[in-house]
Design brief:
The protein is of the alpha+beta class. The protein contains 7 helices and 4 strands, in the order ααβαβαββααα. It has a 4-stranded mixed beta sheet with strand order 2-1-3-4, covered by helices on one side. One of its GO terms (cellular component) is mitochondrion.
């Protein structure tokens, strides 16, 4: 019974929609009936969100490592693989932050270029401390340290070495240190270091003809 009743109701509704006279009849019995056809389409409007994004704008930071003007007065060639040497180099670097008159060049770097440093090759510079003044003059040994210390306000440390016989004695002591510093610091001999660097260069360069060994 319920099924037949539902079918009869559905049939009546269908006839009502197909027959205009039935729609008029509906209007007669129900004056408030609105038979206006609702246009097809979206029932709700979708409004685009306008305005600027709420995400913060990221402004690139200024490079803090911008190169400083080339105003150095002396260049220090140092062995970056020497642990005891680096203590002194680090001290000079810290002092040089205020003065900016020393340019530091690590000869242990694969990028070290003798052509950029008065033709001084790795083996020569490993023999003793070398410094190059801005006019191209090369100084070595205690004299190099004296010039470097003067540039960072510590010239008084080596003032006494300007007088004899203290100067000659200081040179002798330094020469002994320079000769045995590799052994003292537990490193291989200079010949072994040179061979290792050459092998490393060959492996790094490969078949490149532009790479210098």
């Amino acid at each position: 019974m319920a099924t037949r009743g539902a079918a009869a109701a559905a049939s009546t509704i269908w006839k009502h929609r197909r027959n205009p006279s039935l729609r008029s009849l509906s209007n007669h019995f129900n004056p408030n009936f609105n038979h206006r056809i609702i246009p097809t389409g979206f029932k709700y409007q979708v409004r685009a969100i306008q305005g600027t994004s709420t995400d913060p704008v990221i402004t690139p930071l200024k490079n803090r490592d911008e190169p400083k003007p080339q105003n150095w007065k002396i260049k220090m060639l140092y062995d970056g693989d020497c642990p005891l040497c680096m203590r002194e180099v680090n001290m000079l670097m810290e002092r040089n932050e205020k003065h900016g008159t020393i340019k530091f060049v690590d000869i242990s770097s694969n990028d070290y270029s003798p052509e950029d440093n008065q033709g001084l090759d790795y083996k020569t510079v490993m023999g003793q401390i070398h410094a190059i003044q801005s006019d191209g003059n090369v100084v070595t040994g205690v004299e190099a340290f004296r010039r470097l210390y003067e540039e960072v306000g510590l010239g008084w440390v080596y003032t006494i070495t300007k007088f004899e016989p203290i100067g000659k004695l200081a040179d002798v002591v330094y020469d002994v240190w320079a000769k045995y510093r590799l052994q003292v610091t537990g490193r291989p001999s200079l010949e072994a270091i040179l061979e290792a660097r050459k092998k490393d260069k060959v492996e790094t360069c490969g078949e490149s003809k532009d790479c210098k060994i």
